[in-house]
UniProtKB/TrEMBL annotation:
Phylogenetic classification of the source organism: Eukaryota, Metazoa, Ecdysozoa, Nematoda, Chromadorea
Protein name in the entry: Reverse transcriptase domain-containing protein
InterPro entries: DNA/RNA_pol_sf, Retrovirus_Pol_polyprotein, Rev_trsase/Diguanyl_cyclase
SUPFAM superfamilies in the record: DNA/RNA polymerases (SSF56672)
Top-rank taxon: Eukaryota
Amino acid sequence: MTIAKLKHHFMDVFKPQLGCCTKVKATLYLKTDAHLVFLKKRPVPYAFVPLLDPEIDHLVAQNFISAVDHSQRAAPIVVVRKANGSIRLRANFSTGLNDALTEHNPKLEPLFPRISAYGFRVRIDKCHIVVTQLTYLGNVITAARRRSDPKKVDAIIQMPKPKDTAQVRSFLGLINYYGAFVPKMRRLRLPLDPLLEEETTFN
């Protein structure tokens, strides 16, 4: 079956609405010795602030998240701008970034029926089919290697000088993400580490 026929035959897979799994109900099981973690919120980039509340309201209205007055657990959100200009919200549950990327090459003909059967949706304008290179999570991935996205690197270069501890932490988080591409990253960033101390004064 050709790509065009696949897209036409499984049009429901490409509907614009968010999809919900209709086959399995997910359950999270905590370890018996797990302790509650409540992390403070982190500043959201100013450009995203006007978009944040409408996106949260939309997710609540769609029953993807629920509003609460208080919680014993909390994780800071990460706001990511999509290619179409809208935003995606993520919770940062980890203390670091995993550089490992799982490679897979699914066959499309059995893939689309499974997506449809489980009630999920994918955006056709974001699908890259039969390509030799794609950009994913700030990386340019080919069959031969993975390299940093030049646009992301340029954004780091153009970042203004940090004015407080939170902005220093944000900057270090960005450069650490590309640590695999920078030899001796730990040594190079060492002069900036003292700026993470709370008593640091910025001019």
